[in-house]
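Weekly puzzle thread! Below is a chain. First person to post its structure in token form gets bragging rights.
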Amino acid sequence: MRKTIAKKGTSRYPFLIINERETKRKIMTNHPRESLRKLMNRSNHNCFGCSPGNDKGLRMEFYTDEKAVFSWVTIPPHLCGWETLAHGGVISTVMDEVMSWTTIYLLKTFILTKSITVDFLKPVFVETEVRAEGRVVEKISDREALIEGSLYNAENVLCARSRGTFALISLDFMKRMGRFQEEEIEEFRQMLEVRTAPG
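Winning reply:
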């Protein structure tokens, strides 16, 4: 299959960021939550990262400015690593979630994570709100995308960064997998069609 690599200024996806210097500059921008729009989420699932009904999970919510996806999350104390520090695996979960939702929303498709790498740059503390950001770096093909994530503390200091490769899955393929109920697929289809949550 021929690969289609987006070039700056010519991409059919204007939010794609290819230039590394531009990527770093944009990711360092602090977005007030009130200026963003909240993304819809299904309520009848049990994802540890983003389910609103999993009282042991992170209950992450997601927002967008149509160029990136953002999430503010406070890691609970029972997910610590050493003393008051957030566990590295939980930080990785936050990064995976924000990159996944970035892919789902901006590329309008279901996804599966193929691989992620996380650089831990500064301590992340439990019971302290942090901000996760995700951006599309490159849509490599119709089946794969490269996504970047960043995690900032309350002082807007970069604490972790990540890159992930995500498989792009069509809804028809989800049906053929036989792992999803028809109503689940329909709910997901509606999520992709509805741009923001009401209000």
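Puzzle host: Confirmed. Bonus trivia for everyone else. Helices lie at 20-27, 88-107, 171-177, 182-193.
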